[in-house]
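haha ok so turns out i had the wrong file open the whole time. this is the CORRECT one, sorry everyone. sequence first:
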Amino acid sequence: MTRPVIGLNMNIRTFDGNLVYSFYPEYANAIIEAGGLPLPVPCSSRTDILETYLAQMDGFLFTGGKDYPPDLFDELPHPQIKLIHPDRVLSDLQLTRLVLASNMPVFGICAGCQLLNIVTGGKIIQHLDTAASHTDGHYHQVMVEDGTILSRIFGSGPLRVNSFHHQAIDQADIGNIFRVSAVAKDGTVEVIESTDDRFIIGVQWHPER
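then structure:
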């Protein structure tokens, strides 16, 4: 059986004084266990390079990470944010535009979910008032709305998830192609998905874990 090729964006960070590309193995392992073949994409702002990668893919996973700069949605930085490396930011923005312009299915996890919202004109809450209950792997329930793509996977109603984030999508500023399909009890947006039938979903938790 031919495995579908699933792209995933990589992180860039400093290690022993050098810049290195990296990603958590849980992302690749989850893709493999689901029957796919992971294809990591190094950070690049060159459209021709990114398009060459995307031409080999059947779907894309936007991974988690630190925080995207708030000037992307016209805000000053909150003191609690920790920024993603600027080279990854440039690459991720271009990747997201290209992936959304394609017909491939798209999945965003944590910061990847937030990225999808930012690129489509939405905003992010830079630091949740209830951040303590959403960090350090705490488990909590989210309520899945009926009639959504997510409900076709899990059913509607409560779903128990893990949590490793201090930011979340601003429900007052959802990206123009998305709807909210699950929220936590405190009102935090936990899932966005495409308003049409295309499979584009962003989840705030970490299903790969």
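The chain is about 25% helix and 30% strand.
again sry for the mixup
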